[in-house]
Structure formats: structure tokens, C-alpha cells
Write a structure and sequence with these properties.
Helix content is 30%, strand content 34%. It is an alpha+beta fold and 170 residues long. It has an eight-stranded mixed β-sheet.
Length: 170
């Protein structure tokens, strides 16, 4: 997907009106896509921590880059959120649109924004299902991170992967 790619879709900056849709999209991605690699208990714990839509509204003023991939009707189908430090905190694609290169296209655009900002490296903690997407765009896995999420009175073990991508010329 390019800036104007696919079936009339685009990648554009976040708009405040996107917040609710991105919250729903995040939950859909966790509940369907993450379920391919994590247990139902892990998915429930992760979904319980999904971002409140206000997180998106608060992120823009503090300098976060939030890019939204849309379909031909300008509905959000995926998004990426990069903090000013170059940490990619979120990359989610609605399950109906996975496997079409949308997340990779978002990462290319995020990288271009990071380069414009003069950042030397991009960092993330990628889920089991997101790790291949990050790897295809040049991120290298540095270590598996095992941790626990508190949910329903239990400590639920889960993991992700610390990954980094040095930006050329920096």
C-alpha cells in the first residue's frame, strides 16, 4: 500500500475523529490476530489493557506520530504510533486487512518520519504475530522479553520481542 494505494486507500496522519475507531481496531486485532500465537488467557489479559481512545488524542500534542491506513471510504484499517524518541509503541491492523502489506507500508512511512526528525534508531517490542512484519522491514530481533500481565486476579505470562532498526546515515 502506498500513500494512495490498494483499493483507493491511503496512509494519512491521525485525526481526532479516528480515536474511537482505532480503539475498536486495536481490540479486533488483539482478539483475532493475536489469538493465532497466544493463548485465550493471554489474549484476554492483553485485550483488557488495550488503549483507551483518549490515548490517541493525548499522543498527538506530545509529539507522537500517528499514521492511519484507510480503505477507499477513509475508514481506518490499520495504524502505527511512534513516540518522539523513535519507539514504535503500537502497530495494529484490522484482521480483515491483514496479510496485504498495510502494516509494512505504515512502517515505511514511520521510518521516513523518523529520518526527517533526525532519529538514529527505531525501537519496538513486537508481538509474536508482528515480529515477521517488523523483520521484513529491516528490524532485527535482539531478545525475547518474558513478562506477566495482571488480569482477573492472576499473573498471566506472555512474551514479545525487543527489536531495533538503525536508520542509515545517522
Amino acid at each position: 500500500m502506498s500513500a494512495q494505494g490498494g483499493s483507493g486507500g491511503a496512509i494519512r496522519p491521525f485525526r481526532p475523529a479516528d480515536a474511537e475507531a482505532l480503539g475498536r481496531l486495536t481490540l479486533a486485532a488483539i482478539r483475532a490476530t493475536a489469538a493465532q500465537a497466544y493463548t485465550s488467557e493471554q489474549v484476554a489479559a492483553w485485550a483488557a489493557r488495550h488503549p483507551d481512545p483518549r490515548r490517541f488524542l493525548q499522543g498527538a500534542p506530545k509529539g507522537d506520530t500517528i499514521l492511519v491506513a484507510t480503505d477507499g471510504a477513509d475508514r481506518a484499517i490499520a495504524y502505527a504510533l511512534m513516540e518522539p524518541t523513535g519507539h514504535i509503541d503500537m502497530l495494529y491492523c484490522h484482521p480483515d486487512h491483514g496479510g496485504r502489506g498495510v502494516a509494512s507500508a505504515l512502517l515505511v512511512r514511520i521510518e521516513a518520519d523518523a529520518a526527517r526528525r533526525g532519529l538514529a534508531v527505531l525501537l519496538t517490542e513486537a508481538s509474536e504475530v508482528a515480529r515477521p512484519v517488523f523483520a521484513r522491514t529491516g528490524f532485527e530481533h535482539s531478545r525475547r522479553r518474558n513478562f506477566a500481565l495482571e488480569h482477573a486476579g492472576r499473573s498471566v505470562p506472555i512474551h514479545n520481542y525487543a527489536m531495533a532498526k538503525p536508520l542509515s546515515g545517522r
